[in-house]
Write a structure and sequence with these properties.
Elements: H1 2-11, H2 17-30, H3 35-43, H4 47-53, H5 68-80, H6 88-104, E1 113-115, E2 118-120, H7 133-151, H8 155-164, H9 188-201, H10 204-219
Antiparallel strand pairs: 1-2
Helix pairs in contact: 1-2, 2-4, 3-4, 3-10, 5-9, 6-7, 6-9, 6-10, 7-8
């Protein structure tokens, strides 16, 4: 019965929050989706999940102004709402943020500092003439290695991930040129700061959308 309903609701999906929520409910009943993931989807702005979950309790007091501090608060609550997957959700968010920076073709300079959970304001990067091709390729390789580890978190993939990170990003305590790229064994606090580092390189709306889209896709099994 559940399988038949699931197939039927899947055929009826048309992007409307009502039909999409019917599909999510069918997946919940069939055991192919959890309530925790529906809750995470709702937090990420998925309208169908919000039909099921209702409005978030603190939304009435959210400042509509988009800035990196509001994303900091959003990321803080993201950690609070992802206890079922310790570290994984924040890592996925950090990777999505790094990918948004790479896709935007942004680069920064050595005057950007990051150490012990603190991000220091960089100088404006408008003086850069564009993205260096080798640097862009290195970022793409690092992001690909991280996603490979997420798909198969074995030691070999972990070593491949570490090897793919540009050398300057593996020197703890120094000045990084790409502080938004996560490295193995990053703490939750560090991952949250890497998201903010990505905002400095791009903009909050772009980074937030990238994170939300990526996490919703993951919740649905994509």
């Amino acid at each position: 019965m559940n399988d038949r309903v699931l197939r039927q609701t899947e055929r009826l999906r048309d992007g409307n929050p009502i039909t999409e929520s019917a599909y999510l409910i069918a997946r919940l009943r069939s055991g192919t989706l959890t309530t925790d993931k529906v809750s995470l989807m709702a937090y990420c702005g998925d309208e169908a999940a919000r039909v099921i979950n209702g409005p978030l309790p603190w939304e009435a007091n959210v400042n509509p102004a988009l800035n990196h501090w509001s994303l900091r608060d959003w990321t803080y609550h993201l950690w609070d709402r992802s206890r079922c997957w310790p570290g994984e959700v924040l890592l996925r968010a950090s990777v999505a943020a790094a990918e948004a920076v790479w896709q935007a073709g942004e680069e920064t300079c050595d005057c950007y500092g990051y150490h012990d959970g603190q991000v220091w304001d960089p100088h404006p990067n408008s003086h850069h003439d564009g993205t260096d091709g080798s640097a862009s390729d290195a970022q793409r390789a690092a992001i690909s290695a991280i996603r490979s580890w997420l798909a198969c978190p074995c030691e070999d993939h972990k070593q491949a991930w570490f090897s793919a990170i540009p050398a300057e990003d593996t020197e703890f305590g120094g000045v990084f040129t790409k502080p938004w790229l996560p490295i193995p064994n990053d703490s939750p606090r560090t991952l949250k700061m890497r998201v903010l580092a990505a905002v400095y390189q791009s903009d909050e709306d772009t980074v937030r959308t990238a994170i939300q889209t990526d996490l919703v896709r993951w919740c649905l099994g994509g």
